[in-house]
Amino acid sequence: MLSLQDISIATSPQAFAFYGTIIIGAYTKDPLSVMVGTLFYALWPSLVMVYYYMTVVTDVEAMDRKVRYKIYAATLPAYLAGAAVASILGMTLLAKYGIMYFIVIIIMMTINFKKKASTHMAGIIGPTTFLALETWPSIAILYILAPLMALQRIKVGAHTKSELAIGAAIGLVITTILWWIL
Predict the structure, then answer these.
(1) Is 62 in contact with 158 (CB distance < 8 Å)?
(2) Which of 69, 72, 90, 112 is the most exposed, fewest CB within 10 Å of its CB?
(3) What is the CA radius of gyration of the chain?
(4) pTM: predicted TM-score of the whole model, two decimal places
């Protein structure tokens, strides 16, 4: 049986970044894109989370917004660096994926100055939307993980329904707009 912590990890923005890089690698038939995406979009942000979990006394499930800003700021360079490397290597789809993450995180930072919003939800809905629009529409099946994650976030007290809805709206709307622009 999966624990609440298992569900949180499996539905984290870092996990979804990893799933996305695998999907992009399969779609483009480019294993190097999986390596680049994993390094910059999943591993680097995961190491930031581990660092804050190990050095800052905080509840990773329901972090206070002051700690969130530090984590956002520490992960932003990862998405930009990954997008730059992907672009240099001609991995256009992977570069767009990194830009999408970068912009969504900036918007989440901005929103979280005023109101707490779910980065987990934005981290599921945004990448799933991007991948469904860019690759195979059947990827939209990943949306099924959103309610599972939402129940977990409510159960541990990390978010309210409105915070989850804000995160979902940001993920969907911003990613769709970026998809049209990029």
Answers:
(1) yes
(2) 90
(3) 15
(4) 0.90
Angle made by CA atoms 179, 117, 95, in degrees to the nearest 5? 30
- What's residue 58's pLDDT? 56
CA distance 25 to 15: 15
The counts of H helices and E strands in the chain are: 9, 0
Question: In terms of Cα–Cα distance, which of 111, 41, 114, 53 is closest to 81?
Answer: 41
| Domain coordinates in residue numbering, the chain | 4-181
Sequence-distant (6+) residues with CB within 8 A of 128 are 16, 139, 140, 142, 143, 146
CB 142 within 8 A of CB 153: no
| Residue 156, number of CB atoms within 10 A of its CB | 16
Is the pLDDT at 93 greater than 90? The verdict is yes
